[in-house]
Automatic annotation (TrEMBL):
Record protein name field: AEDO dioxygenase
GO cellular component assignments: mitochondrion
Any one GO molecular-function label of the UniProt entry: metal ion binding
Domain of life: Eukaryota
Keyword Iron on entry: yes
Transmembrane segments: none
The keyword Iron belongs to this UniProt entry's keyword annotation: yes
Keywords (A to Z) from UniProt: Dioxygenase, Iron, Metal-binding, Oxidoreductase
CDD domains named in the record: cupin_ADO
PANTHER family xref list: 2-AMINOETHANETHIOL DIOXYGENASE (PTHR22966:SF61)
Length: 248
């Protein structure tokens, strides 16, 4: 059964997000961000009227997928959006992956609601950054620009985990994989994506290969990435948000 405070909790999260990201350069930003992180850590799937499932189950319940008979690997439930932040829920089918992508100039917070996610986080490195240079990338005909990055972490997150945080400069690139079943997470981005203001999503691919059966190299480490178009097998459908209404 949903908890008694379910309606007030997601409303409190939204209000705190508005306070926090209204002045991200202000002196109280760190304190406000910490408070938002604490509130987000309390959110559970039942607070948003969600039961563990995947987008395919939702499409079947609604009489079939409206995407030409093909169920999307990921779907999104919009909760609210202002000029300073957006909030919604991403649902991943079992085995689905949100490819490696960036959040230009944005802060973000991700809280798993059900299932298990494997999240790989990276930072872009400026040209001439100190530290050992990564091996030059192999040539790739027709590929986009290459950039150096610091592969910082690869961790598993569950509903018991604290939120995963990203900033404009730390963990700004990440890849999200559903592990051993469907998964869902509450997502806050601040400010929202806006291509007209230079906040467009870019996708990347790691330029390295491992021999079969080899252990992944230790992290953190420098790597090369290549910008790629959005993968043909990845797209995001939409679903109605079933949880308590948020008013801002």
């Amino acid at each position: 059964m949903p908890r008694d405070n379910m309606a007030s909790l997601i409303q409190r999260v939204a209000r705190q997000a508005r306070i926090t990201f209204r002045s991200p350069a202000g002196p109280a930003f760190g304190e406000n961000l910490h408070r938002l992180q604490q509130l987000l850590d309390e959110v559970r799937a039942e607070d948003l009227h969600l039961a563990p499932r995947g987008p395919s189950a939702a499409a079947a319940a609604g009489g079939g997928p409206p995407w030409g008979g093909v169920v999307p690997p990921v779907s999104y439930m919009h909760i609210c959006e202002t000029e300073s932040f957006s909030m919604g829920v991403f649902l991943l089918r079992s085995g689905a992956c949100i490819p490696l992508h960036d959040h230009p100039g944005m802060n973000g917070m991700l809280k798993v609601l059900y299932g298990t996610l494997r999240i790989a986080c990276m930072d872009t490195l400026p040209a001439g950054a100190a530290g050992p240079a990564a091996a030059p990338p192999p040539p790739a005909a027709g590929s986009g620009p290459c950039l150096r990055a610091l592969f910082r972490s690869r961790q598993h997150y569950t509903p018991a985990s604290p939120p995963c945080l990203l900033s404009p400069h730390t963990d700004n690139l990440h890849q999200i994989d559903a592990v051993d079943g469907p998964a869902a997470f509450l997502d806050i981005l601040a400010p929202p994506y806006d291509p007209q203001h230079g906040r467009d999503c870019h996708y990347y691919r790691l330029l390295e290969g491992l021999p079969a059966g080899a252990e992944p190299p230790a992290l953190p480490r420098e790597v090369w990435l290549v910008e790629t178009p959005q993968a043909a097998d990845f797209w995001c459908g939409g679903e109605p948000y079933p949880g308590p209404r948020v008013c801002l």
